């Protein structure tokens, strides 16, 4: 009789444990379902017309006397600077990037009609910032007329991209959600929230992408290089370009 009562007690305890455990198991299964995620990327771009230009002016002087070559270089640099100032370029927008004088006689790539043997070559470069992009052609002409021997590294920039970037960012987020909705519908699941978002910035130059560095709020400087040439190789004018500002996000959504 005691053994029979004991067996009933054990059976009752097992039933109670199973009854208590069943909701917990169901809750665990539901939690596992809710922890599923979908990760998608979204991107959007905004094209902005350049509002500033930069270019580099090169000056080269040859002379048999190194001191004469260097003095001529200083005079030529001063003449170009004066002409640019008269054209409205402020002193703060004219950066001289050093002077050098040397003998290129031992370097075969300097041998030719443009470089005489046993001559000293004095050279210098100036970086010019132009805030009116429609005057780039004229500023280049002034530099060449004043004695510049080469112009290169011409590029157009957008100084303040914050508003444009935020517009692209908003579109990128919407693009990501649209992609996620398509995937969720195909999988017959429901998006219930956002797990994480990763943001990045890119600038596109003719199909090539490169990270755009700058402040976290999107106030970045973006540039597009136009060409590298000497005056003899330049043909046609320089047209202000557009810069493409692209926002990119990776979003992980929670699903059930």
Describe the protein.
This protein has 256 residues and is an alpha+beta fold. It folds into two domains: 36-51 and 159-256, Protein of unknown function (DUF541), domain 1 (Translation Initiation Factor IF3), CATH 3.30.110; 53-156, Alpha-Beta Plaits (2-Layer Sandwich), CATH 3.30.70. Helices cover 35% and strands 38% of the residues. The chain has four helices and nine strands, in the order H-E-E-H-E-E-H-E-H-E-E-E-E. A five-stranded antiparallel β-sheet has the order 3-4-2-5-8. It has a four-stranded antiparallel β-sheet with strand order 1-9-6-7.
SSE topology:
Elements (H helix, E strand, L loop, with lengths): L1 H33 L1 E14 L2 E12 L2 H21 L7 E9 L17 E11 L5 H10 L4 E9 L3 H26 L3 E15 L2 E4 L10 E8 L12 E14 L1
Query: Which runs of at least 5 residues are low in confidence (pLDDT < 50)?
Result: 10-34, 204-235
Give the proportion of residues in helices.
25-40%
**Could you give the order of the helices and strands?**
HEEHEEHEHEEEE
Relative strand content: 35-45%
What value does the average pLDDT take?
A: 77
Count of DSSP E strands?
A: 9
* Name given to the CATH architecture of the largest domain: 2-Layer Sandwich
Radius of gyration: 34 Å
The level 1 CATH classification of the largest domain is Alpha Beta
Characterize the largest beta sheet: strand count, sense, and whether it forms a barrel.
5 strands, antiparallel
* Estimated structural class: alpha+beta
Strand order of the largest sheet: 3-4-2-5-8
Count of domains: 2
CATH superfamily of the largest domain: Protein of unknown function (DUF541), domain 1
Number of helices: 4
- In whole angstroms, how far apart are the ends? 53 Å
**Shape estimate:** elongated
The CATH topology of the largest domain is what?
A: Translation Initiation Factor IF3
């Amino acid at each position: 009789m005691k053994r029979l009562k004991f067996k009933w007690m054990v059976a009752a305890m097992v039933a109670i444990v199973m009854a208590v455990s069943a909701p917990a198991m169901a809750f665990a299964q539901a939690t596992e379902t809710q922890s599923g995620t979908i990760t998608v990327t979204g991107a959007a771009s905004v094209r902005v017309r350049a509002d500033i230009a930069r270019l580099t002016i090169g000056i080269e002087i040859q002379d048999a006397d190194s001191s004469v070559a260097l003095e001529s270089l200083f005079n030529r640099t001063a003449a170009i600077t004066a002409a640019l100032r008269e054209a409205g370029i402020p002193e703060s927008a004219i950066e001289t990037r050093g002077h050098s004088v040397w003998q290129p006689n031992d370097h075969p790539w300097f041998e030719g009609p443009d470089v005489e043997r046993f001559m000293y070559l004095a050279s210098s470069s100036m970086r010019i910032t132009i805030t009116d992009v429609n005057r780039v052609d004229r500023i280049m002409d002034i530099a060449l007329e004043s004695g510049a021997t080469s112009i290169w590294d011409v590029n157009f920039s957008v100084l303040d991209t914050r508003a444009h970037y935020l517009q692209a960012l908003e579109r990128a987020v919407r693009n990501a959600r649209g992609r996620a909705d398509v995937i969720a519908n195909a999988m017959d699941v429901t998006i219930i929230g956002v797990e994480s978002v990763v943001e990045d910035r890119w600038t596109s130059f003719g199909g090539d992408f490169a990270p755009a560095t700058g402040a976290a709020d999107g106030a970045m400087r973006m540039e597009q290089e136009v060409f590298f040439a000497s005056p003899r190789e330049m043909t046609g004018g320089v047209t202000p370009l557009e810069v493409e500002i692209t926002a990119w996000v990776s979003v992980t959504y929670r699903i059930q």
